[in-house]
Amino acid sequence: MSALPRAKIRLCVEHPLGAGQAVSLSPDQAHYLFGVMRKGVGDHIALFNGRDGEWTAEVAEAAKKRGILVCLEQAAPQQMPPDLWLIFAPIKKERTDFIVEKAAELGCARICPVQTEFTNSGRIRQDRLQAHALEAAEQCLGTFVPPVDDLVPLSKLLAGWDAGRRILWADEALVGAAETLADLPPGPWAILIGPEGGFSEAERAKLRALPFVTPISLGPRILRADTAAVAAVTLWQSALGDWR
Amino acid sequence: MSALPRAKIRLCVEHPLGAGQAVSLSPDQAHYLFGVMRKGVGDHIALFNGRDGEWTAEVAEAAKKRGILVCLEQAAPQQMPPDLWLIFAPIKKERTDFIVEKAAELGCARICPVQTEFTNSGRIRQDRLQAHALEAAEQCLGTFVPPVDDLVPLSKLLAGWDAGRRILWADEALVGAAETLADLPPGPWAILIGPEGGFSEAERAKLRALPFVTPISLGPRILRADTAAVAAVTLWQSALGDWR
Question: Which of B140, B223, B231 sits opposite A221 (nearest CB)?
Fold first, then answer.
């Protein structure tokens, strides 16, 4: 579908993309493109906005803190992830960053940090986590960036939950054979991963009582929370998602 | 099987473990246990050696750079991983550390770093990677630490390969539906993950020609090498390993 070679540098923009469309860069993007990467007028860059696929665009104007690119042709169609959310309790900084990066890479549609009874951190840097999701999409030729929600208490999230979206709960107390996810119904899902200390007894009782929650085991070994997140998303994608 | 509460601090030792067995600590372990963790005579520690399961041991002698523990009772049986090796091309330091940690957590029996045509680093710190595998086992209540080999060229590894061990090759050129691994034969396997730049054309041709190599896709998205390693081990474990 594309006659031009695929541009190496990729930027995510807000602007609509289409043939002949002019797109303004943010001051940060202009600095990165012209200052750091030494690109200039006439160079080709890949643009995506989460809706219109990837477009090859040519630099039309380049200044220190601003720039204009013009879309030439679509390089790849828009690729949306399946309707899978990842709910997780933030852990140490590096491992939290890692979970967000991997969720974006593996194809989650939304990332929901929750505070549980045993969650260490009472706050997150939502903007920093969102930037990690964006960077993962830019690096891995993605055309969609999953939104990262603000931190909410798990109890509040569950109180307002739409029962039409099932929750796959990686229950760290279930250490044994992994479930066969292929038997689960398709449709909207969310994966729930606890913090390092697992869930409290009260949380576990509540989760067990919810009709839309399915507990699963992730094998006979104890996994760190970040490992459990990647393993659960992988198993869901291969059984119910778009890896099939 | 165990009457004593499971000790929180876990140490991997070389020594055989059994009821009444006295075990000497290394200077580093004695420093960690008595200097850093402030443990002393009478305290209980968990010991494992990769063969005899986990044992609860009591500190019998504590000095600055040495110590003796006596095994009281077995706290958990020995748990061996299935016969799965992970072959991977080292990438950036943090992501290489991550791959080794995750391979140990997810249950690989051996970790084989290989140098490919597009591998950036010409050397690894084998001792540091081995320490990461050990720490993962200590943290995640494991009783087995996968050995980490020295870096070898992929061509040399393949030249001496035992054809009885099949290789599951995460072929980054196969972007599409993920394979159904359940159709693959059981037995000894190795997973092969390339570097960030993928494999060269010559390497790909060689791999395709080997009868014991099976290429697989890991879904429709491009994954970083560390993500591919975790996803591939997860899929293998759930289809052919001990997560079934």
Answer: B140
Sheet of strand A22-24, all strands in order from the earlier edge strand to the far edge:
A10-12, A44-48, A54-62, A67-76, A22-24
- Contact check, Cβ <8 Å, A107/B221: yes
Q: Is B62 helix (H, G, I), strand (E, B) or coil?
A: strand
Please say if the pLDDT value at position A236 is more than 90. Answer: yes
Domains in chain A with CATH codes: 10-76 (2.40.240.20), 84-239 (3.40.1280.10)
Partner-chain contact B235 A238, CB within 8 Å: yes
User: Which among B97, B243, B163 has a CA at the least distance from the CA of A220?
Assistant: B243
What pLDDT, on the 0 to 100 scale, is given for residue B178? 64
Task: State how far the Cα of A229 lies from the Cα of B12, in Å rounded to an integer.
Answer: 27
Q: What is the H or E stretch that residue A119 is in?
A: none
Residue that wins the pLDDT comparison between A197 and A132: A132
Q: Give just the sign of the alpha carbon dihedral A90, A92, A93, A99.
A: negative
Give pairs for B119-122: CB < 8 Å, separation 24+.
Answer: B119/B89, B119/B90, B119/B195, B120/B90, B120/B91, B120/B92, B120/B195, B120/B196, B121/B90, B121/B91, B121/B96, B122/B151
Closest residue in B to A101 (Cα) is: B227
Task: Say how many CB pairs under 8 Å bridge A and B.
Answer: 94
Phi, psi of B224, deg, nearest 5: -65, 160
Rounded Cα distance, A29 and A12, in Å:
9
Tell me which chain B residues have a C-beta less than 8 angstroms from the C-beta of A241. 219
ipTM: 0.91
